[in-house]
Amino acid sequence: MLRTRVIPCLLLSNGGLVKTVKFQDPKYVGDPINAVRIFNDKEVDEMVFLDIGATAAGSGPNFDLLADIASEAFMPFAYGGGVTTVEHIRRLFFLGVEKVVLNTAAVSNPTLIRDAVSLAGSSSVVVSMDVRRSFLGKYSVCTRSGRLDIKRDPIDYAREVEQLGAGEIFLTAIDRDGTQSGYDLALIERVAGAVSIPVVASGGAGILEHFKEAVTHGASAVAAGSFFVFHGRHRAVLITYPDYGALTDLFES
Amino acid sequence: MIAVVSYGVCNVGSILNMLRKVGAPAEAVSAPSGIERAEKLILPGIGAFDNGMNALTDRGLADPIRARARQNTPVLGICLGMQLLSEGSEEGVLSGLGLVKGRCLRFPVSADPQLRVPHMGWNVLSPRRESLLLNGLGRDARFYFVHSYHLACHEAADVLATAQYGVEFTAMVQRDNVWGAQFHPEKSHKYGMALLRNFASL
User: Fold this and answer.
1) Is A11 exposed, middle or buried (0-12, 13-18, 19+ CB in 10 A)?
2) Distance between CA atoms of A160 and A227, rounded to whole angstroms?
3) What is the DSSP secondary structure assignment for residue A128, as one 8-state letter?
4) Sign of CA pseudo-dihedral B96, A88, A123, B161
5) Does residue B118 have a cis bond before it (omega within 30 degrees)?
6) CB count in 10 Å sphere of residue B54
7) C-alpha separations of A130 from A62, A127, A176, A225 in Å
């Protein structure tokens, strides 16, 4: 049987590892290669690296850094950030990235999704959706690391990217990012209910039970950042990952 | 030297990384000459069946791979690479390499939301028989799968290991010196490392 995937989502900025709160105030948490080595030892299911500065810088992916990460990562990993061309995607797969994550470019150039799928198959193409919830509870999709509200309903947008061939949706609730207060379960339920491709829940995990809640509300896999890089009330940097048995027990209970 | 066949889109980098880690000399080859001088072949692959077959044929690699397989050279197909060893797939119209008897079928649509296609994640194997490639792998060994199609073997004896995803399917195949793994050993931690080390020391 297949256990729910539990995925550290690690943010890159200027070659370092950072962690944000609600997409703001990136705090430096260490060296990405060191983190990969630790996650190797802990046998994590999968990793997602998102370079949160790449789109704004307009520089494309940092291929040298990603090659170093790939040479140390003996588990599947996905990469997103500044990916705008098929050539970027081809280079990422060649150096050992398993899945490419499209966000801003998926909106500005939706045919890139289709091109990526015809290059590598849908299971290698992830569309990431960053979703903001308004005071009135209305959801809206944002791009450019949450800075640009494109005024799209997440359900419509999710269906559209599924139609274009995306194999997975990486769904982040901006308002929960870094808060460790639990996932936005209503959002997960809506998006997962609208598509038949797997939805990875992201934003808000603080305790193991949050993973279980996300799955109960339709997530096929769960991602977290702070949960895996901070420890304790004072948010000391400590890279951790639950052991296999604890996760198996959690999802089977 | 293990030749990792590089024919367009495939994760050659991850396989070379892991072979380096286990100390096995390996290189990416994309020309028939590289295949002809290899001691062993690994055929990786992601994406659609016909794209993969076309990419092999366009580079003149399909016949040299078949020839080496028939000369008893160990061949390991990974993911789409394993499917390409077969006779064909529901996903496309082209014939496969024909080194293993059988065709690839799509996973059935399931009402269970936990059985979405593609089958993506970590799964365990049920070995059908002893095998050098599975040497030293304990019962807890798990492997990373990403696929929507699976190989239905015509000859049950070719099935080396199965896994469960709504249905029982072929996770590993072996016919003489030709092996296939539907999962990604290069992305399966120490378990995949052990499997690739076993292949390197065949």
Assistant:
1) buried
2) 31
3) E
4) positive
5) yes
6) 16
7) 22, 10, 11, 15
For residues A49 and A234, give the distance between their C-alpha atoms in angstroms, rounded to a whole number.
24
Q: What does the alpha-carbon distance between residue A206 and residue A178 come to, in Å, rounded to a whole number?
A: 9
Judge: B17–A70 Cβ closer than 8 Å, yes or no.
yes
- Is residue B27 flagged as an active site residue? no
Q: What is the 3-state secondary structure (H, E, C) of chain B?
A: CEEEECCCCCCHHHHHHHHHHCCCCEEEECCHHHHHHCCEEEECCCCCHHHHHHHHHHCCCHHHHHHHHHCCCCEEEECHHHHHCCCEECCCCCCCCCCCCEEEEECCCCCCHHHCCCEEEEEECEECCCCHHHCCCCCCCEEEEEECEEEEECCHHHEEEEEEECEEEEEEEEECCEEEECCCHHHCHHHHHHHHHHHHCC
CB distance from B22 to chain A under 8 Å?
no
Active-site residue (options: A130, A175, A177, A184): A130
* Sheet with strand B88-89: strands edge to edge: B88-89, B102-106, B149-153
| Sign of CA pseudo-dihedral B18, A45, A22, A20 | negative
pLDDT at B110: 79
Which positions in chain A touch B18 (Cβ < 8 Å)? Answer: 74
Mean pLDDT, rounded, for B164-178: 96
What is the average pLDDT across B142-163?
96
For the stretch B28-81, pLDDT in tens is 999 999 999 999 999 998 888 999 999 999 999 999 999 999 999 999 999 999
Per-residue pLDDT of A199-211, as tens digits, reads 999 999 999 999 9
Indicate whether this complex's ipTM tops 0.95.
no
Q: Which of A2, A120, A196 sits opposite B46 (nearest CB)?
A: A120
Dist CA B50 CA A113 (whole Å): 20
Tell whether pTM > 0.90.
yes
Catalytic site includes residue B79: yes
> How do the pLDDT tens digits run along chain A, 253 residues long?
567 999 999 999 999 999 999 999 999 999 999 999 999 999 999 999 999 999 989 989 999 999 999 989 999 999 999 999 999 999 998 888 989 999 999 999 999 999 999 888 888 999 999 999 999 999 999 999 999 999 999 999 999 999 999 999 999 999 999 999 999 999 999 999 999 999 999 999 999 999 999 999 999 999 999 999 999 888 999 999 999 889 999 998 8
What part of B 34-93 touches A (C-beta under 8 Å)?
A: 46-48, 51, 80
